[in-house]
Amino acid sequence: MIIKAENIAKSFSKKVVLRDVSFEMKRGSMCGIVGENGSGKSTLLRIIVGEWKADRGKVAIDGKLGYCPQKTLLFSQLTVDEHFRYFSAAYGIEKDKLLSSCEELMNHFNFKKFRNEKIANLSGGTQQKLNLSIAMILQPDLLILDEPYNGFDWDTYLMFWDYTDKLREKGCAILIVTHLLSEKDRFDRIYKIENGYLR
Fold this sequence. Notes:
alpha/beta, six-stranded mixed sheet, three-stranded antiparallel sheet
């Protein structure tokens, strides 16, 4: 298993958000988690990636983790290239591997022409392409995506699914969390968070 979550529970004051949530994923699999806004999807993600601590339960991940949050973590005065260098330094990625990954991602998602542009000058869709790409430069074993295709046009949407196929062929497991899930046939399993439970 690439990830195993067991009996995750989380409350904020008297509001119970997650109740005894458990699931697991194999390498190369794709799972979706759906639910209404406020159902606890993002809370579960933040616990999985270590941003928040669960009140009860545990998460075990066997491999490198890539995480694309719903809100872009970008700096308005840095360029696309500078973002890649910044995050690669944080991940400890070697320069030659970084160059290879960046070129592949910029070519696939068709934003290489913006590599020297500051984020402040980019469209929301292009910013989301970079946000997604940053999560993948590590070449993760588990990729966690929170509403990953918000702001994508149709061509980029298709590019996204094409790239997930390539990742899965390499053994990367992908977890997508969204309030609206399409392409259901691509998923090995789809969960729904309802009243704090994962069904």
